[in-house]
Design goal:
It is built from 14 helices and 15 strands. It is an alpha/beta fold. It starts with a strand and ends with a helix.
Length: about 375
């Protein structure tokens, strides 16, 4: 099977990370996998065996992109096109339709991630012609169900490289003083806009309360446009000595940090299938999470503490509860870790292989019926 993936960027976002897990696994299963992309960054995944096709464009609206994709599709002659993220969902979907190639649209989030802009409306319009819409969560599936109730929709949960995570030893990143201070960890983009709302101001407000009760080291692992604002907050709130921004870290270093942390906190307003939370679960790190459907889909009270991010005192109390009652936190973390045992990358790849096969069989059936007619 020849599978062509289209992505705007390879820069370490959640969808790109899942692509980075999926594509090499499909290669190992005997498929040819190609990937076309516009740009990459320090978090570009390792894509062993994947045929890479960098694209050139002056900007996101450069019409030359369209012609590059047309030529690429005619050269690669894929059986399936798989688009990831809004820009390629639109552009790749149009090109796939014009060339008669079945295509899969990946939905990495849920309804709240999609504002009513012309781009999102166009994505839905183009997506109505997709051979399949694949969501990684029930929230994503519900979003598309309201828009395209009769479309071919599937849910394929994200996978994790469980063996690699299991072999990673606990460690703090370089540059941090070694101490026994409890670590409160956040991993993800530093952002609070239409692209994502991580409620990081609420986290900082909660940390101010926590620091009045006991000493902690808060580590924020990730990059994003909100970093400057958050650094200013640390100064104004007197948290600067106890807050550390790591910026981008290689994925194994993130896992090592998750295994070292005393508590992992995610106060997101919405998610799809949150990679960072899943990884923290697999690393056995105690969890404080916003009470949202995406978190409830994979966890319950037996394995995490849920909070209302707008309730700063509740959030701070939950963090302190885990820090002061480590044994109970470890029990919940162990239950959470056990839930990840079925989330392998190989299992995710088999699900996609089956999905692609069903699409191609359906396509062949339609062509046969047309021939007979």
């Amino acid at each position: 099977m020849r599978i062509l993936n289209l992505l705007p960027h390879l820069s370490g976002g959640g969808a790109e990370r899942q692509f980075g897990y999926l594509a090499p696994e499909l290669v190992r299963m005997g498929h040819r996998v190609d990937a076309a992309y516009l740009s990459s960054g320090p978090a570009k995944p390792e894509l062993n065996g994947v045929m890479m096709h960098p694209l050139r464009a002056a900007n996101n609206y450069d019409p030359y992109l369209f012609w590059q994709l047309v030529r690429l599709i005619r050269g690669v002659r894929p059986d399936i096109i798989h688009t990831w993220i809004l820009q390629m969902d639109i552009l790749g979907g149009v090109v796939a339709g014009l060339n008669g190639v079945p295509w899969v649209l990946a939905e990495p989030s849920s309804e709240l991630a999609h504002s009513q802009t012309w781009k999102h409306r166009l994505r839905v319009r183009v997506g109505s012609g997709a051979s399949a819409i694949v969501c990684n969560s029930r929230g994503g599936d519900e979003y598309w169900k309201t828009l395209l109730p009769y479309s071919r929709r599937y849910i394929v949960p994200n996978g994790l490289p469980l063996d690699l995570i299991g072999r990673t030893a606990a460690a703090l990143p370089p540059g941090l003083p070694r101490s026994d201070t409890d670590v409160v960890l956040y991993v993800g983009r530093l952002v609070s806009d239409v692209t994502g709302n991580k409620n990081l101001k609420a986290l900082f407000a909660a940390l101010a309360y926590v620091s009045q009760r006991q000493k902690v080291l808060a580590i924020l692992c990730g990059a994003g446009p909100q970093r400057g604002e958050l650094q200013t907050m640390t100064q104004k709130m007197g948290l600067e000595p106890n807050v550390h921004f790591t910026g981008y870290l290689p994925t194994p270093s993130v896992w090592a940090l998750m295994k070292k942390a005393s508590v992992f906190v995610s106060l997101s307003a919405y998610e799809g299938r949150p990679n960072a939370v899943m990884e923290a679960m697999a690393c056995g790190c105690p969890l404080v999470l916003s009470d949202i459907p995406a978190h409830r889909e994979i966890l319950d009270e037996s394995c995490a503490l849920f909070v209302d991010p707008s309730n700063i005192q509740q959030t701070a109390d939950a963090i302190v509860q885990i820090l002061r009652n480590a044994d109970a936190g470890k029990v919940r973390a162990l239950i959470a870790k056990e839930k990840t045992m079925g989330w392998s990358v190989a299992g995710m790849a088999r699900n996609y292989e089956k999905l692609y096969g069903e699409i191609l069989s359906s396509q062949e059936h339609k062509l046969n019926n047309r021939t007979k007619g």
